[in-house]
Amino acid sequence: MTQQKVLEIKNLNVGYETYRGVTDVIHHLDMEVIKKEKIGVIGESGCGKTTTMKTINRILPNNAVIKGGQVKFNGKNVLDMKKKELMKLRRKNVSMIPQDPTASLNPLFKVKTQMKDILKYSKEYDEEIDYKAKSIELFESVALSDPERVYDSYPFQLSGGMRQRVCIAMSLATPKDLLIADEPTSNLDVTIQNQVLNLIGNLLEERDLSAILVSQALGTVKKFVDKIYVIYAGTVIEIAKTDKLFSDPIHPYTIGLLEATPKLTGGGFSAGIAGQTPDYIDPPSGCRFRPRCPQYSDKCKNERPKLIEVEKDHYVACWGN
Ligand SMILES: Nc1ncnc2c1ncn2[C@@H]1O[C@H](COP(=O)(O)OP(=O)(O)OP(=O)(O)O)[C@@H](O)[C@H]1O
Ligand SMILES: [Mg+2]
C-alpha cells in the first residue's frame, strides 16, 4: 500500500531580489510529508527554514523569486495555483504558526475582530456560530488565562507570549490537513516554551494532523516528531527517524549541530561549527558545506552531493559517505 503524500516538494529553488542581485537561498530542496506524519526541520539561523515554509502556502515576501521546482499539496502544485485556489489552500488545508506573531496580527483590530474573520471565512461553521464562545474555547485550549480579556484586547495590549498563543489558537481554529509551526516558541520564556510545545504536541496527537515543526534547537523538536530533516544553506543534507538522527548522525554538519546544542545538564556550550552560512549571492559550488567541512575532497568542490539512502529511512547528502 502506498502512503498518501500530503506534501511533496521537489527540486525547489528560491531566492530574493536584493540590491546586490538575486540571491540563491533554497537550492534543489526536496521534502515530503505523508499523512499524519510529524516532521522536524532543523538548521542554523539563516539556512532557509522560514523561506521553505512560506513557499508551501505561498506567503513569501514580494522580493522573493521562485526559480523552479514543485510544491505539491495533496497532488496539486501550489506554485501553479491561481489566487482563488491559494486562498482556499490557506483557509482549508495549511495553517501556519508564524515565527513572528507581532507581524502576523493586525495591530489595528482587536483580537475578537480577527478571530471572527478567521472563523467566518473558513466557512467551517454555520452562520449561527457564537464567535465569542468559540474563541474563548480556543484560547482556553492554548492555556491563555483570562481569555475574556484577551478576546477584547488589541494585540499591543498583550505580551509576546500571549500574542504567540493567540496565533496558535487562530491556526487551530479550523480543521486543517497540515500544520506548520515555525519556531513556535521563540518569543516565550523557558517555562512557557515547554507548556506551549506540549500543547502543540497534544493537539497534534488529538487531531491526527500532519505537521512540520521548525526549530533551530534540536532538543525542542525531538519529543514531537517522527522524522527530522536537517537543512544547511537551503539544501537538505540529512533525513532520519528522530532516534536515529540523535544516535547515529552521519553528515559532519549534523554532528556539529548536535555537539553545539547546549546541554542542560551542565558542561556549557561546545565550540559549535566554525564559520557561518554562505553569502547567498555567491554560494560555494559543489557541496555548500565544503568551506566549513573538516573532511572535504576535490569532488565536494565540483559536484553537488545528492541525498542517498545509506540505510533504511536514513538519507545523507555527502561525498564522504
Ligand atoms: N525578504 C527578504 N529579502 C532578502 N533576503 C531575505 C528575505 N527574507 C529572508 N532572506 C534571507 O534568506 C536567508 C534564509 O532566511 P530564512 O528566514 O529562510 O532562514 P531561517 O532558517 O528561517 O532562519 P532563522 O532560524 O533565523 O529563522 C537568509 O540569508 C535571509 O537573510
Ligand atoms: Mg526562520
What does it look like?
- The structure is a single chain.
- This protein is of the alpha/beta class and 321 residues long.
- It is 33% helix and 24% strand.
- The protein has one domain (5-99, 178-316): Rossmann fold (3-Layer(aba) Sandwich), CATH 3.40.50.300.
- It contains 12 helices and 13 strands.
- α5 (131-141) packs across α7.
- Adenosine-5'-triphosphate binds at residues 16, 18, 25, 43, 45-51, 61, 63, 99, 216, 280.
Spatial strand order of the main sheet: 7-8-9-4-10-11-13-12
CATH class: Alpha Beta
What's the pLDDT, averaged over the residues?
A: 88
Q: How would a crystallographer describe the biggest sheet?
A: 8 strands, mixed
The CATH superfamily is P-loop containing nucleotide triphosphate hydrolases
What sort of overall outline do the alpha carbons produce when their principal axes are compared? globular
Q: How many beta-strand segments?
A: 13
List the helices and strands in order: EEEEHEEHEHHHHHEHEHEEHHHEE
Helix and strand content put the structural class at alpha/beta
This entry's quaternary arrangement is: single chain
Task: Bin the helical content.
Answer: 25-40%
CATH architecture: 3-Layer(aba) Sandwich
Query: Number of helical runs?
Result: 12
User: What is the radius of gyration?
Assistant: 20 Å
- Ends: how far apart? 31 Å
Bound molecules: adenosine-5'-triphosphate, magnesium ion
Estimate what percentage of residues fall within beta strands: 15-25%
Number of domains: 1
Low-confidence stretches: none
